[in-house]
Specification:
By secondary structure, this protein is an all-beta fold. A 4-stranded antiparallel β-sheet has the order 3-5-8-7, with no helix packed on it. The N and C termini lie far apart (98 Å). The mean pLDDT is 86.
Length: 203
């Protein structure tokens, strides 16, 4: 309002909105995400919190930005406070880590599996039941597994010591081809279609 000699001359209503929050609203488990508020006051007076499954790793530029790690899946919330008073909340959806790759293959084949997880890729660890890990790429984003046993087999992905996902692969015995009828003393050739090093097979 405007006053002259103590008397109000004019007034105008002002609407003050809560500052906005920006950052990824849909992320994968283990992601470390930066969130920023649009408030203009002294940034050091702002504080950040995250709902269960989120950890505030750091704040930057006073408290203009924060980095939050999401360790569990589901609907989450980032909250912004000023001098202890809640100003704004921001919804985040955290999806689970999944493994993609073949669900069936033949004995001896080498199959590549990939996960969609975020965070420090070097913290991911792969194991395989009945298979051997023969290579990893892009940190541990991808793994190549040679299947050395038949049956229902499992690929397991962990982040540190916590299991993120499992993936089943059915490994069948290799097929082989050749003539099924022959004459006595006839010499015939048979071929197998196993993917493993041929020197490891015996007939």
């Amino acid at each position: 309002s405007i006053r002259y000699s103590g008397t109000s001359q004019a007034s105008k209503s002002v609407t003050v909105n809560a500052p906005s929050i920006s950052g990824s609203s849909s992320v994968a488990r283990n992601a470390e995400v930066t969130y920023t508020h649009g408030g203009g006051f002294g940034s050091s007076s702002y504080t950040w919190t995250a709902s269960s499954g989120g950890t505030v790793l750091s704040t930057n530029n006073g408290a203009k930005n924060t980095v939050i790690k999401w360790s569990t899946t589901g609907s989450k919330t980032v909250s912004l406070y000023y001098a202890g008073a809640l100003l704004k909340t921001y919804s985040v959806s955290v999806s689970g880590v999944t493994i993609s790759g073949l669900t069936s293959t033949s004995h001896g084949n080498t199959v590549t599996y990939t996960h969609n997880g975020a965070g420090n890729l070097n913290n991911y660890n792969w194991t395989a039941s009945g298979g051997s890990i023969v290579g990893q790429n892009n940190g541990a984003k991808q793994v190549s597994i040679r299947w050395t046993s038949t049956g229902s087999r499992t690929v397991t992905l962990k982040y540190g010591t916590t299991t993120q996902d499992t993936h089943s692969t059915s490994v069948s015995a290799p097929t082989f081809s050749g003539t099924t009828t022959s004459l006595m003393n006839q010499e015939l050739t048979y071929t197998h279609f196993g993917g493993y090093a041929s020197s490891n097979y015996t007939w």
